[in-house]
Here is the input.
Amino acid sequence: MDTEAQHTERDRSSGEEERSRSARVSGPDGEAGPEGGAAQPEGPEDPEEQGDPEDASEESEQPGGVLTWRRTGLIGVACMVFLLLFSHFVLQPFLVPSSSMEPTLQVGDRILVNKLAYRFGNEPRRGDVVVFDGTGSFVQEQPAGNPVTGLLHDAAAALGLAEPDETDFVKRVVGTGGDRVVCCDKAGRLTVNGVPVTETYVKLGDRPSDVPFDIVVPDGTLWVMGDHRSQSSDSRDHLGQPGGGVVPVEQVIGRADWIGWPVGRWSTVPDTDAFDAVPQWTGPGGHG
Here is the structure.
């Protein structure tokens, strides 16, 4: 027997088995197969079983989108609550609805009312521009209305986005408790405690008052008038009504300190020295 032929045939057979084994291990593309211990694909090989990648992306993004909108809504509500609380206790925008305070305040001005001005023992002084609730003095009854729309209106008014309630007014303090306010003297001037007052803030062309009056302001109340005297319904117009035209100090909402809108009107509400020379009234009905 030819041993060399046997060896050659055995070697050829061994080589073919080795190549066959290598093909099974590597796979058709040369990658490691099952016998090589390589990891197999985790998902199904059928594309339909794997699902649409875009659908998976939408599903993964949807919860995040919902959370984002929810978070935005909560932030918006929190900001609104903060503004309403700030407006209620500290600083309230107030839309000027009429010309009764011209030229100091114009129609459409948004003034900022300082609600802390009279909270710590301070009281309104002559010359202050104040916002007050006129219920019981300028308005005898609270107007009836829809409670829901009323609530929405109050919220908008508190942010300066709507006209104030019909019971809210803005006027200038001319007399405080104990003052005697008279109009007019022989020169046509208003006097407080016998001292003529030069009212430079009054609308040019207006007289101090076309209605004569002589009143001693009761303690704890205010005599208020508009700067546009010919267009202002103020204490003079309510002399014969319950309350006598004076406003209780506790009805004052705050002092108008700034004009916040429009931008061209940004400024503080100007002070006046018109009453600097006025003494405390010591005559009948007053006190020293």
